Predict the 3D structure of the following.
Amino acid sequence: MDIQLLLALVLGIATIIILVLRTRLDAFVALLIAALVTGLVAGQAPLEIVSAITTGFGNTLASIGIVIGLGVGIGKILEVSGAANSLALAFLKLFGKGREPWAMGSVGALVSIPVFCDSGYVIMNPLARSIARVKRAGYITLALALGCGMTLTHHLVPPTPGPLAVAGILGADLGALILAGLVFTVILLPVVVFYARWIGPKIEPGMNETVREMVYGSTAARSGGRTGTALADHSDGHSDDSMPTLEDSDSLQGSSIEVDNNTLGTPPAGAKPHKVGAFMASLPLLVPLVLIILNTVSGAIDQNNQGVVGTDEYEPSAWVVPLAFIGNPVVALVIGVLLAVYVLLPRWTPRSKVQGWFAEAAASAGLILLITGAGGALGQVLRSSGVGDALAEAIAATPLPAFLVPFLIATLVRIAQGSGTVAMITAASVTAPLVSSLGIDPVVAALACTAGSMVFSYFNDSYFWVVTRFAGLDGTAALKGWSGITTAVWAGSIPLLFIANVILG
């Protein structure tokens, strides 16, 4: 590998780590400085670096910015209406006490098959917060289990776009890859849960105080989250000891929570306390997810029928277009917002209240959007500098077991530029000419590409910032929690690849 490109990668990563951990600069600024350092050391023209930064920033926010904004809006309405608490109690009943991390990991894995991790995490995170609020502890464990459950299927199971493209590039049977990816997911899910349970309590004391207060209430925030607090009214940050706790959840009929009417506006005379049942509470989440699933599945079927799976030649058929429109994440989440406002809130909630809640949600999403875009900017600089391609070519030249070549290429490209989808597609593209000549089964090669791309999600991965900012993790706590759990499932996939190669190879 070109020493200059290797040095650019090392210095870029070092810049982020030093600035984030050792200076007063925010991660947003640190990412942009790292992008400049990387581009300059790699030998890019200064104006090309700036162009790559703006392109990467814009492309990243174009794909996820609106979704994050709409998602946090839905989350805010779920929170103030009591709907999120009702859903939390329903999940606790379904999985049973003590199994909440299994619940969040499983839900995350299911949701992320048709939905990008970023979108799915934004949609489902209020549920993790509400369960933690009911339990009075354990938010970090739940947040990590949810996020990494999503990582598994996002990387391993078509019709997620990355694995779908890998199947097309390598000529792998799509049905076999879906089945194998699901098997990998089921086997790796315990790794997610056990790691989250192990590291969560260790790093939760370092959780951002603002996020702690949002999850547990102001009393818990002052005491480091260890003081028992009942389900909180988060419109003012104060806990309400009259609300049900985890111990009371089994006696709640229909998993519905009564909400103080004054929180929602000025109620009419004699109005009963507002109550949202679990089914109604699920609609702003469930309907967008179903619409997105319909879009994904119909598109996959249509591509397969046209014989253009994983290529750029696909043109949607007439019957797919309406599903593609309403199932686009932006449109689906707009529908979710409408359902949240007009189904979960009483008719007497004033417009000014609702608009104020949306303003609060937008303020909380602002920094997440900036950091997410900056992560995309750094990734674009790394790609345009040629670091990813150089790494792939270098590892392909090493004397390794054939099926580990795409795995290591995906691993190094992921570390170099952050995007798991780009990493697996790069690995598939580089190794496609080697698959038949080296006798690698295409499904095994595809699994190697997708599993290798899960490694060490960190500063140049936009999903890293989504998870850690929503979880309130900074610095080394973010690395131990999120980077650690993604590396754990990456390591867990290695023996599974050896077994898959024996069975399929």
